[in-house]
Design goal:
alpha+beta; Glutamine Phosphoribosylpyrophosphate, subunit 1, domain 1; Rossmann fold; seven-stranded antiparallel sheet; six-stranded antiparallel sheet; disordered C terminus
Length: 500
């Protein structure tokens, strides 16, 4: 999962791109990059780290041009420690193309072989985004043999790409001397939208918050399978490039990944989380009588809307019992589970008065590995809680995600092949309440009747692209980001809710 943005303007875009990436920082903290285009020359700066650390004044001055794109990276494939795999990626032929990508190609292994044996193109990293860029370059080269590049040729290239690519992809690309191209996979798994400001500047971005926070008015989502080409004069061309597109966004975007002030595919993320709290209330009542709960406390931060709605419906006081330290960096101590445990204690502190002598219902947005949940339950007990109940606004995470979220392998998922009671015993709470899968889909899906469904594969094991089996999951797990032994696991889901 990453955050991507592109801007076409009649004035320098470096500051707009920087500001938009700050608003998308929650989608990736591993690396950041910006590339701009002046005449036919690209100017690029990218590095590992947060946006504010990667870009200094000297770097911004070295990014001239009125068109550009950027990305914040959260690695889900390849080598998380390789500077080379920070995006944007660049290829010099045809024309000169740069690209940023949010998602995960499920057939990257086969495509890499095709690129070498059939397309005669070379990839130099383990990143599936570099594979995607080279497929785009090859199809553009085929479409423009003997003819100039216009919108028709761009759309023909994307149409050919859609037939080759599998998996999830929201993409923003620049073609030197021609314009900016944005497109989305035929299922709309990863979000992408566009808007315009009062000066006619056009922005495409992963979430609407990047538009609105930069002074742009949201116009629309880019449809599944659609390509949008914005030429250097600011003219917008669009076309549906997939044969049978359906709208099946990743439901985990609404559960956890997206900012609550964003709207994705016509659905307010905040309202979706309120609805999840409402649906969860029914599950709580059937498990723990409300009279046995003294206070409801969210585990920061994505669970807050669900927890407030749950407390309101059950008539139980809502309290903040945990304070998050936003300024704690990585802990460079001995590797392993001890690192994660220490990091949880550093990043989260309890307000003991809210726990002492009370029966507490903790609310989380989701439970992945369970290690963090176990530690937080123990923190509540250490603060004097008489009983500690735990409710998850999402159903049990039982299956790996292959579409751009670094979900662990199934053996690392606490809910895989375990009953609710077995999970409860591992976490150590007095009662464990999960959301129901169908109730989750109804709660969020009711906010947009035009949805065809969701990718909820990590909850129900149904992969919407229809090409996923045990062998392909094992192969993709082999290409998950490699961690160095002395480094703490920095993935967002290794420590749920603790994004910077």
């Amino acid at each position: 999962m990453c955050g991507i943005v592109g801007v076409v303007s009649n004035a320098p875009v470096n500051q707009l791109l920087y500001d938009a990436l700050l608003l998308l920082q929650h989608r990736g903290q591993d690396a950041a990059g910006i590339v701009t285009l002046l005449e036919r020359k690209f100017f690029m700066h990218k590095a590992k780290g947060m946006v504010k650390d990667v870009f200094r004044t000297r770097n911004m001055r070295a990014l001239p041009g009125n068109i550009g794109l950027g990305q914040v990276r959260y690695p889900t494939a390849g080598n998380a420690y390789s500077e080379e795999e920070a995006q944007p990626f660049y290829v010099n032929a045809p024309f000169g193309i740069v690209l940023v990508h949010n998602g995960n190609l499920t057939n990257a292994h086969a495509l890499r072989a095709e690129l070498f044996s059939t397309d005669h193109r070379h990839t130099n990293t383990e990143s599936d985004s570099e594979v995607l860029l080279n497929v785009l370059a090859h199809e553009l080269e085929r479409a423009t043999r003997g003819v100039p590049l216009h919108a028709e040729e761009v759309f023909a290239s994307v149409t050919s790409m859609q037939k080759r690519l599998r998996g999830s992809y929201a993409v923003v690309s620049m073609i030197s001397g021609h314009g900016l191209l944005a497109f989305r996979d035929p299922y709309g798994i990863r979000p992408l939208c566009m808007g315009r400001n009062a000066d006619g500047v056009i922005m495409v971005a992963s979430e609407s918050v990047a538009l609105e926070g930069s002074g742009f008015k949201f116009e629309r989502d880019i449809a599944p399978g659609e390509a949008v080409f914005i030429d250097l004069q600011g003219q917008v061309h669009s076309r549906q490039c997939a044969e049978a597109a359906t709208l099946n966004p990743c439901i985990f975007e609404f559960v956890y990944l997206a900012r609550p002030d964003s709207t994705l595919d016509g659905i307010s993320v905040y309202q979706a989380r309120l609805n999840l709290g409402e649906a969860l209330a029914k599950r709580v009542v059937s498990t723990v009588p409300p009279s046995q709960i003294d206070v409801i406390i969210p585990i920061p931060e994505s669970s807050r809307p669900s927890a407030t709605q749950l407390a309101h419906l059950l008539g139980i006081p809502y309290r903040e019992g945990f304070v998050k330290n936003r300024y704690v960096g990585r802990t460079f101590i001995m590797p392993g589970q001890g690192v994660r445990k220490k990091s949880v204690r550093q990043k989260l502190n309890v307000i003991a008065s809210e726990f002492k002598g009370r029966n507490v219902l903790l609310v989380d947005d989701s439970i992945v590995r369970g290690t963090t949940s176990r530690e937080i339950v123990q923190m509540a007990r250490d603060a004097g809680a008489r009983k500690v109940y735990l409710a998850s606004a999402a159903p049990p995470v039982r299956y790996p995600n292959v579409y751009g979220i670094d979900m662990p392998t199934k053996d690392e998922l606490v809910a895989h092949d375990r009953t609710i009671e077995e999970i409860r015993e591992l976490i150590g709470c007095d009662a464990l309440i999960y959301q129901d899968v169908d109730a989750m889909k109804r709660a969020i899906g009711s906010l947009n009747a035009k949805l065809d469904g969701f990718d909820a594969s990590c909850f129900d094991g149904v992969y919407v692209t229809g090409d996923i089996d045990t062998e392909s999951i094992n192969r993709m797990n082999g290409n998950r980001p490699r961690m160095e032994e002395t480094e703490e696991d920095s993935s967002r889901l290794a420590l749920p809710n603790f994004s910077e």
